[in-house]
């Protein structure tokens, strides 16, 4: 899908003043963050991100309609400044015809990229049930290898896979901790959602829920 179609599809959701807007560009978290930044200019706020699609190839971002008055002011100003956005015209914060952020928006997009990456990584780093399944898979593979390999070789191979898995999870945990540090330095504060997951909110922002009349 072209950049223009991605932008036009998102702006069509925004034009209907939907409570939630779903963004799922093909590609990286940076592209998703760039579109999320555009949605912010139209009065939406970041909610969450996760992987979806065939083989989890898409990064999907959910934005919710920000109920704060300043969000409506920002939305009105953006509509006035970019009347042809999504129809070949300029798009707030992005180079025309591209998802590359303009210099003035690069910092905000980088922060959104950290938010997206932090949430996406939770599916693999913080999910204890997934970790258990992966280690059980290592045990199962070792058991299958015992049918046609010497016990020592099978155990060594299974142990090597488990070791690689542990190392990969450790690297992911370290990376996620560094992202958390950057978000904190950028003025975000950590909270727990209703499922106990770690989330980061900007100044004055609240999790969608009882305090947000637009929450599901």
The parts where pLDDT drops under 50 for at least 5 residues are 210-216
Q: How much is the radius of gyration in Å? A: 21 Å
Q: In percent, how much strand structure appears in the residues?
A: 5-15%
Termini separation (Å)? 29 Å
Q: If strands are numbered along the chain, what order do they take across the biggest sheet?
A: 1-3-2
Order of helices and strands: HEHEEHHHHEE
Q: Name the helicity range.
A: 40-55%
Profile the largest sheet: 3 strands, antiparallel
β-strand number: 5
Count, helices: 6
Q: Please state the overall shape, judged from the principal axes of the Cα atoms.
A: elongated
Fold blueprint:
Blueprint: H1 3-15, E1 20-23, H2 29-41, E2 44-52, E3 58-65, H3 69-81, H4 106-125, H5 128-145, H6 151-185, E4 189-192, E5 198-201
Antiparallel strand pairs: 1-3, 2-3, 4-5
Task: Give a brief outline of the structure.
With 216 residues, the protein is of the alpha+beta class.
Describe this structure in words.
The two termini are 29 Å apart. This protein has helices at residues 3-15, 29-41, 69-81, 106-125, 128-145, 151-185, and strands spanning 20-23, 44-52, 58-65, 189-192, 198-201. It contains six helices and five strands. 26% of the residues are buried. The protein has 216 residues and is α+β, with helices and mostly antiparallel strands. The radius of gyration is 21 Å and the shape is elongated. The strands form two sheets. It has a three-stranded antiparallel β-sheet with strand order 1-3-2. Strands 4-5 form a two-stranded antiparallel ribbon. The model is unreliable at 210-216 (pLDDT under 50).
